[in-house]
Amino acid sequence: MPSLAGATQDEVRRSNLSTVLRLLHLGGAQSRSHLTAVTGLNRSTVGDLVSTLAALGLVRERAGDVRGVGRPSLVVEPVSSSVAVLALDLRVERTVAALVGLGGDVFARVERRHRDGDRDALLDEVVQVSREVIAALPSGASLVGVCASVPGVVRATDGLVRVAPNLGWTDVPLGEFLRDRLGGGRGDVSVRNDADLGVLAEQVRGSARDSSTVVYLAGDIGVGGGVLVDGRPLVGAGGYGGEVGHMRINPQGHTCRCGARGCWETEIGFAALARSAGTSASGGLGALIDGAERGEPEVLAAFASVADWLGMGLVNLVNTLNPQSIVLGGHLGVVYAVAGDRVLAQLATALPAARDLVRITSSELGGDAPLIGASELAFSALLEDPAGMLRDSAAS
Amino acid sequence: MPSLAGATQDEVRRSNLSTVLRLLHLGGAQSRSHLTAVTGLNRSTVGDLVSTLAALGLVRERAGDVRGVGRPSLVVEPVSSSVAVLALDLRVERTVAALVGLGGDVFARVERRHRDGDRDALLDEVVQVSREVIAALPSGASLVGVCASVPGVVRATDGLVRVAPNLGWTDVPLGEFLRDRLGGGRGDVSVRNDADLGVLAEQVRGSARDSSTVVYLAGDIGVGGGVLVDGRPLVGAGGYGGEVGHMRINPQGHTCRCGARGCWETEIGFAALARSAGTSASGGLGALIDGAERGEPEVLAAFASVADWLGMGLVNLVNTLNPQSIVLGGHLGVVYAVAGDRVLAQLATALPAARDLVRITSSELGGDAPLIGASELAFSALLEDPAGMLRDSAAS
Questions:
Q1: Spatial distance between the Cα atoms of B81 and B103, rounded to a whole number of angstroms
Q2: CB contact under 8 A, A241 and B354
Q3: How many CB pairs under 8 A join A and B?
């Protein structure tokens, strides 16, 4: 049901500014006439919006390429050094931090392996890598947002990490911690599940660019899931949606880390692949890929088994969500490359109408998808209301 | 991602007219000051919007109740006889048609049992009951929309019924047929899956009124599913989403009508309950309810078994969609009433964060949910753009 609140003239202007800045952030430099055509707004309205964004320092105009005879058209481009965001990715074994400018330029990136499993040590490490990349902020630029990706269940409203088994975390107030430790002048701080950010990245800048309903599966020790429905994140009532790795798919199966029996991740997580491949798995995913390339029967059988269960669970997602794209990340992308025929054989049992519309791909962004998604989410407050945000930060 | 199109002043006015009419349609008579408070618009803007709607004949003002001293306030109410919609529900054994006025008044309702399984006979029956209820249209009123509910997979764009097993239908162009046979002056014609309409009805006028993310399960011979995410129907890329009855939940289970093995509906559909209850099931659901009340062990065991599988599948939906409400219709509402403890015991294995937020209820609207949802969807074009729609229909 649409919102029951009324719209005002100010909201229209804010929405149009947002639209134009988003086009430039995602599409890079483009002519005014292109912006006019894409937005459907008047030429003069677009000119006015561009001037406002230029006055805020977010975009600049330059002479474009001369096409045929006539005057060269003006090209509008985002000023990457005007504003930046801090993107953090807390992975199972390492922390990654990046400082990203408007338009997606990466100014600095730091990766650090976790030293031990202690919660406070990890939090200190996060602050340290954050400060290292923030030091690369161009002079005069504002930090307009921070977003951290976490392999766990996160309460979206305040960034409380409810549970992140692979970090050993329960109820860690990461959002509050980052707000305190990074101090003022860093824009909004948000924390999200890694796969929820991964699907955002794949849709905005990756394999699912032309799709509005997308499922992203991040294969790792567990299996994270992120879902977009009609271009919007499926996060549900509390922000906990998308945990498709905990669909119960095999009532006779193994007990999951979550306590339930037969969750999908007990059959398709990396542990299931390794268990099934036996001794060949001691070298990790690389060794399994080598084994598959050499045609080792035990390794091929392990990929085939995981592929069967992968396909079976995809049937559920196709029947339930009717997505255009399913993007497979981590070892699941490898499973699809090695044994895609078995995945598709299972998928043939989905309802035909939905099955015919879905495209399965391996992830284009690979392991960086959650980091890229975090940077996009950190930009969202600026992109929603550019003038309001920069006015507020100038006043503070 | 938000829309990339710009907003204009006309769109703002249209959106505000829409908001006010929707409030009156769903909430009935209310004062101008209440409308002002709920919409957040200026008093004068609301006055202007109400005048426009009154000029269109959709609402009227009358003196309200006197509260305390002072002048009685003006009350705005929808004029139920100004516009109406035709709602159709093609059930497995009967067709139901209703003519519904603005605000939800039912002017006429007809039910007819199917005479035989022939496709053309059923289509003729649909046209006949439609004409019978349309005859009750108040003089001067316009028919502003038609919507038909179908127990099957429907292409939303044109109302093609891809497959409706219980009607014996494959690729029946019901939308096109209704447009042809009902002639002009009947507004838009749409066709939707019954459970997709059921969830809409439960959220707008039923058990899930305060919820934005809702799962509705219609228990029948099969199990239909309808899902709302953040108040919007989860229909997916082609309109085929929400078929949760075809989640594969028991790889060792029965073969489903859809051809796959172990779909949820093979374990929780009415056929599963009847199979499990044995001879006690020959009297239908009523006999099973009686048996359960008398404490017959075979019947109680059948309810318990279906309740276990119901709970197990609900875990998947809770982990994936993180809904606030799950509404159980048909025999599934009865299963919950008889053996809710078993359902909740399974649900205890869902991820705690999501599990703590969900409320499970039996359907408030019962078997009429799809019909009520069809009437709401048929009103949606008028509610989106009241002035535009009535201007267009006056011109034609």
A1: 10
A2: yes
A3: 237
Report how many domains make up chain A.
3
Tell me if B237 and A323 make a contact (CB, 8 A cut-off). Answer: yes
B94: closest CA of chain A, how far (Å): 25
Residue of B320, B360, B379 to mutate when probing chain A, most A C-beta within 10 A: B320
CA distance B293 to chain A (A): 30
Judged by CB atoms closer than 8 Å, whether chains meet at A247 and B246 is answered as no
Give the CATH number for residue B164.
3.30.420.40
Residue A298 CB neighbours (<10 A): 13
The dihedrals phi and psi of B314, each to the nearest 5 degrees, come to: -65, -35
Residues B169 and B231 in one domain: no
In terms of Cβ atoms closer than 10 Å to its own Cβ (0-12, 13-18, 19+), residue B57 is: middle
Is there a contact between A322 and B239 if contact means CB atoms under 8 Å apart? Answer: yes
Kindly state whether residue A4 falls inside one of the protein's structural domains: no
Give the distance from CA A57 to its chain's centroid: 27
**Do B214 and B358 belong to one domain?**
yes
> A387-391, B19-23, B113-117, B207-211 — which one is most confidently predicted on average?
B19-23
User: Based on the domain organization, do A142 and A31 belong to the same domain?
Assistant: no
DSSP H or E segment with residue A216:
strand A214-219
Q: Are residues B35 and B145 in the same domain?
A: no
- State the Cα–Cα distance between residues B127 and B263, nearest whole angstrom: 35
Q: What is the pLDDT of residues B32-57, one digit of tens each?
A: 989 999 999 999 999 999 999 999 99
CB contact under 8 A, A243 and B12: no
Chain A nearest-CA distance from B374, in A, is 15
- State the pLDDT at residue A361: 93
B236 and B308 housed in the same domain: yes
Q: What is the rounded CA–CA span in Å between residue B229 and residue B324?
A: 10
Answer yes or no: is pLDDT of B71 > 80: no
Mean pLDDT to the nearest integer, A167-175: 93
Q: Which residue of B has its CA nearest to A244?
A: B320
Predicted confidence at residue B66, as pLDDT, reads 52
CA distance B50 to chain A (A): 14
At B68, is the pLDDT very low, low, confident or very high (cuts 50, 70, 90)?
Answer: low
- From the CA of A223, how many Å to the nearest CA of chain B? 13
Residue B215 sits at the vertex; the CA angle it makes with B356 and A223, to the nearest 5 degrees, is 65
pLDDT attached to residue A2: 41
A49 and A118 co-located in one domain: no
ipTM entry: 0.80
CB contact under 8 A, B236 and A323: yes
Q: What is the pLDDT of residue B1?
A: 38
User: Is there a contact between A389 and A229 (Cβ–Cβ < 8 Å)?
Assistant: no
Whether residue B323 is found in the same domain as residue B188: no
Is residue A250 within 8 Å of residue A262, measured between CB atoms?
Answer: yes
Q: Is residue A202 part of a domain?
A: no
| B4 located within any domain | no
The per-residue pLDDT of chain A, averaged, comes to 90
> Do residues A43 and A118 share a domain?
no
Which of B45, B78, B111 lies at the terminal end of a domain, its last residue?
A: B78
Pick B213's closest partner by Cβ from A9, A237, A250. A237
Enclosing domain of residue A66: 9-78
Query: Is the Cβ pair B7, A4 closer than 8 Å?
Result: no
CB contact under 8 A, B354 and A213: no
Q: How far is CA A241 from CA A258, A319, B208, B354, B357, in A?
A: 15, 17, 18, 7, 11
DSSP for residue A255: B
Q: What pLDDT is attached to residue B305? A: 96
Chain B hits for A237, CB-CB cut-off 8 Å, are 211-213, 322-324, 354, 357-358
Mean pLDDT of A36-45: 92
Higher pLDDT, B159 or A221: B159
Task: Summarize the confidence of residues A284-291 as an average pLDDT.
Answer: 91
Is residue A137 classed as helix, strand or coil in its secondary structure? Answer: coil
